[in-house]
Design brief:
Chain A is of the alpha+beta class. Chain A contains 6 helices and 11 strands. The chains are: A alpha+beta, B alpha/beta.
């Protein structure tokens, strides 16, 4: 265990824990956009930056990735920290002017859009937080989506933006997307769903008769777990 | 082909034999085949020399050698005749026969091929007397002249791999590391981190295997030091790496080299093959029991891959994105194993330190920065090329004494150091010694050694826009401040150069910069605002002129300037009328010409062609 200070509070934490996790355990709120308990931190949104002092050295670090250390003094709301957060939000607001989530977050933090940043007009709501890509790779295990291009042109897509053979249509990417950028459309009857340009046939629950999961997803789960596909023909509610 | 050398003693006798085969008094021709000279068509010149020599039945009596870059790229193709070291520059591709007949056989100097010192107007015969070379201390780069990069025999003949033999047979790994620490060899890639400490940390780190990597992903606009070293003397870099590997305890090394450097890729491949055949790489090197091998990985042309964690990602086959470096590469680098990464020039310094000792090395340079540094001197400078000087040499010496000053008698304005991560330094700091620490104090950095000279016709806002735009395109896009912030800065800079700048833009640029400096994930983002910050710091007036007066003082930003003719200077020579691509310049012979603003695209062709300086840009 190590002792440290966060926002003038003396806190005990396990060595190796990240600052963000320790802060949350202690009820200290640090805003994030690319952090999720199910996936490893990546440090891309930079909203969770804090000012950490160790000895004489003070630096701005991403709390989601920076491990606590003995005697560390953390300020989660210093002027430097707030400057970075304000800039990050203003930049994202200009990139995704259509995102309600970003507007809400900015309002909560008292950040106003920078009038000098001309809002993008491409209707993209993706903030490149990477949660979808990481979920698809680490949680689902299929890596159907990834990044193409770099810098401002960077975007999330299936390889060559074609229908993905490996995608199982599970929709985990759409579920985790914080800004609603990833669209998943389901037909009225629920017999198919379309995501990343590919339409998936849905399976009917043997018991209740409702469409509940893409057939490809059930095949994938069966293969991965060894559970016979017949045993997967019942939806969660009826199981 | 050299057969496998099995011990240090055998290496010494091979070196001796090869050295004996090189009679220093024998007449010789050395042709620079660095990329710069090759671009002039030197390959044809080499063929011509070979043909003319064999025609005259001289092939055996003359030492003909192609060598790596000599550095004075401005003056290529370059030929040096030994033993006197007669220096011919801007040699015509068909001049081979004449050089052989007149100079080599009769001892006559061909006047038109000599370098003329612009300061004195005198012709210089010998290479060492050329001012560009005279003021340099060419240590690392100096060996380029003596070896054919494709010949391990050449390298062995000048004592090559002797430092490796000494290290493997006479020194313990820890001793080598202590020697590097004592020499205070700092990373030449730009970071300036002490190499010895890095080696030590990698050696002591938990985890096997350990890797060493050579960073040859040089990507600063205008910089080509590492390229020319790897092209010109690949064995020197390899020797440094093998010594490092032995000291660190690594059996596998990588060279990450830009694929845009085809000659470097080719020459390092040849060198690796030769070194393996000679028993200087591979299993049981020089019979010492130590084994080490090197693989070459070609980079796909991403500037960010020069950053260590992005380089490792790329080497592992993933996208070149950096990761937060809260864990040092020396603990968990390539494939999450302890990894020591040094750049080309750093590795190339190692054999010298082992051979001549840390005290000798530490005797060169300043208190905190030891040894020499190679710079690529480009831009508005008379002597474009690669320059190697002791650390601590002033910018003034580099620009005016070695570089020969600014062309066309124009006025020095600024020097951009350290590439896109560095800054622009104004005239008032020209007497600062260049080393790892001094330039950082004034908002720039030495970086890997890029020096871009600018004169009064360079607009500093435009320069800042150029570098910022470069970084927009090279940002990997992983973190928000870098991906989104730099492009917003570029947009504001573009507005300013187009006359759409607003009050408060400079302050906003500074504010965004602070956020990016603090908030970006890696060194690319953390230093991206430097070109903007340093130009604001030293040329704030120029920003103000663009924003408030809608005027570009340097006469560069097209939307803010007009071209006109100075009636007093114009002689009516019709040259501008002929070169103007849009017909905007018009007039009659011996009458003052005029420029039609409606047709003028501000391309600058008239200004460049006017011999009477009569084109006014405002």
């Amino acid at each position: 265990m190590v002792n440290l200070t966060i926002d003038n509070r003396k806190i005990e934490a396990e060595a190796g824990q990240f600052i963000l996790d320790v802060a949350r355990e202690n009820g200290i709120v640090i805003p994030t956009l690319c952090s999720h308990e199910s996936i490893e931190p990546t440090g891309s949104c930079r909203l969770c930056v804090v000012e950490a002092r160790q000895g004489k050295k003070t630096r701005i670090v991403t709390s989601c990735l920076y491990p606590v250390a003995k005697g560390m003094i953390v300020d989660t709301r210093s002027e430097r920290v707030m400057n970075v957060r304000r800039l990050v939000l203003q930049l994202l607001l200009a990139r995704c002017p259509g995102s309600e989530q970003l507007k809400e977050m900015a309002a909560e933090m008292g950040v106003e859009a920078e009038p000098r940043f001309v809002p993008d007009t491409d209707n993209v709501k993706c903030i490149l937080c990477r949660m979808c890509v990481r979920t698809c790779e680490k949680v689902v295990g299929v890596s159907a989506i990834g990044f193409s291009y770099r810098g401002p042109e960077k975007n999330v897509c299936t390889p060559f933006k074609e229908e993905s053979e490996t995608c199982i249509g599970c929709g985990a990417c759409a579920y985790i997307c914080p800004t609603g950028h990833i669209e998943m459309e389901t037909t009225e009857t629920g017999d198919t769903r379309t995501i990343w340009g590919r339409t998936f046939k849905m399976k009917i629950c043997k018991v209740c008769g409702r469409y509940f999961a893409p057939e490809d997803q059930l095949v994938y789960i069966s293969q991965k777990t060894g559970v016979p596909i017949e045993d997967l023909a019942v939806c969660i509610s009826c199981r | 082909m050299t057969s496998k050398i099995k011990s240090f003693n055998e290496l010494k006798s091979v070196q001796k034999r090869l050295k004996a085969g090189r009679d220093p008094k024998k007449p010789g021709i050395t042709v620079c085949v660095g990329t710069g000279c090759l671009a002039y068509g030197t390959k044809k010149l080499v063929e011509n020399f070979r043909e003319e020599l064999s025609k005259r039945d001289l092939a055996d009596r003359i030492d003909f050698r192609t060598s790596g870059c000599h550095g004075f790229c401005e003056r290529g193709p370059m030929v040096v005749l030994s033993p006197e070291k007669i220096f011919y520059q801007r040699v015509g591709l068909a001049d081979a026969g004449e050089i052989i007949d007149k100079t080599l056989l009769k001892g006559e100097i061909i006047d038109r091929l000599l370098y003329v010192d612009p300061a004195t107007g005198e012709k210089v015969v010998h290479e060492d007397d050329v001012p560009f070379y005279k003021k340099q201390s060419r240590l690392v780069f100096g060996l380029n002249f003596q070896v054919d990069p494709e010949s391990i025999e050449d390298y062995l003949a000048i004592g090559g791999y002797g430092a490796l033999g000494k290290a493997l047979t006479g020194m313990k790994p820890e001793e080598i590391i202590q020697e590097i620490i004592k020499a205070n060899l700092r990373g030449r890639g730009g970071g300036g981190f002490p190499a010895g400490w890095k080696w030590d940390a990698t050696r002591k780190a938990q985890g096997e295997p350990k890797y060493i990597v050579c960073n040859a992903d040089e990507g600063d606009p205008g910089a080509y030091m590492d390229r020319s070293l790897l092209e010109g003397n690949p064995h020197l870099v390899l020797e440094g790496m093998v010594i490092g590997a032995y000291a660190i305890g690594s059996s596998q090394g990588y060279i990450y080299v830009r694929n845009e450097y085809p000659l470097a890729v080719k020459n390092i491949h040849i060198a690796i093959r030769q070194a393996r055949e000679a028993g200087l790489l591979g299993e049981n090197i020089l019979g010492s029991g130590f084994s080490f091998d090197v693989k070459v990985n070609r980079g796909g042309g991403a500037f960010v891959c020069g950053e260590s964690s992005a380089l490792f990602a790329s080497l592992e086959g993933r996208a070149g994105e950096p990761r937060a470096k809260y864990i040092h590469a020396t603990d968990r680098g390539l494939y999450d194993k302890p990894t020591n990464l040094n750049n080309v020039e750093t590795w190339a310094n190692v054999p010298f330190i082992i051979e001549r000792g840390a005290d000798w090395f530490a005797g060169i340079g300043t208190a905190g920065s030891k040894g020499t540094k190679i710079f690529s001197l480009v831009g508005k400078i008379n002597n474009t090329g690669l320059v190697e000087v002791p650390m601590g040499t002033t910018l003034r010496e580099i620009v005016f004494e070695i570089g020969g000053g600014i062309p066309d008698g124009r006025k020095f304005k600024a020097i951009q150091t350290g590439g896109p991560s560095g800054g622009c330094i104004p005239e008032q700091y020209l007497d600062l010694p260049v080393d790892f620490d001094e330039l950082t104090k004034i908002g720039s950095m030495m970086g890997s050694g890029g020096l871009i000279v600018m004169d009064d016709r360079n607009c500093m806002v435009n320069v800042a826009k150029y570098f910022t735009n470069f970084l927009v395109n090279e940002s990997c896009g992983k973190c928000v401040p870098c991906r989104e912030g730099i492009r917003r800065m570029r947009d504001i800079l573009a507005d300013i150069t187009e006359g759409k700048g607003r009050e408060g833009d400079v302050e906003l640029l500074e504010k965004i910069s602070t956020g990016i400096l603090d908030g970006a994930l890696c060194a690319l983002g953390n230093s991206a605002p430097n070109p903007v910050l340093s130009t604001i710091r030293y040329f704030r007036d120029e920003y103000a002129a663009h924003i408030k007066e809608k005027r570009c003082p340097a006469g560069v930003c097209r939307d803010l300037i007009t071209y006109s003719v100075d009636a007093e200077k114009c002689t009516g020579c019709m040259v501008c009328v002929k070169v103007c691509p849009t017909g905007a310049a018009s007039g009659e012979r011996k009458k003052v010409h005029v420029i039609d603003q409606a047709k003028c695209t501000k391309c600058g062709a008239c200004r460049e062609s006017c011999k009477f300086d009569s084109i006014i840009v405002r």
